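Usage

Read records sequentially. Each one opens with the input sequence:
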Amino acid sequence: MVEQGWSFTSRERVVGATTVVELGGEVDILAATALGLRLDEITGSGHPDLVLDVRGVTFIDCCGISMLCRARRRTQVKAGRLRLAGVAESPSVLRLLRLTGLLSTFDLCLDPGADPGADPVFGLVGEAGADLRAEDGCPCTRPHAEGPGHPATPGAPTDSAVA
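and closes with the structure output:
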């Protein structure tokens, strides 16, 4: 966990083969520098499977967006997977991804309703050895976008309008 009197936090855990990082507070140049180092470790080997939960992010700037893009690029290079969770619950992240035109570049996990067996923070099943969704091998209980940036749930945010 990164939390040293700064205005951001991160909490990390592993569910099955997926690393889940919950981000909170202000993701600015200070946060992006510290968090970026850890994300580089996670995305640096094998086939990383990473979920970044941004629902607790209250502010994000261009350095934070750059950190997300770097993690996405590093994951793709290693034939891994990066998903953003909680974008709809974080107005600052949603707005900046829309303004920059980057919303459609990320795979989104959306939570249309609570799954009774799911983890309330991440919507992931179980603590270890999560049940995988048959159609895409993801432990996330949220429906995924039909295509990057295009939510599968009606009324969910898309990249077609700026907030």
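Summary fields computed downstream for this record:
- Residues 62-77 form the longest helix (16 residues).
- Confidence is low (pLDDT under 50) at residues 112-137, 145-163.
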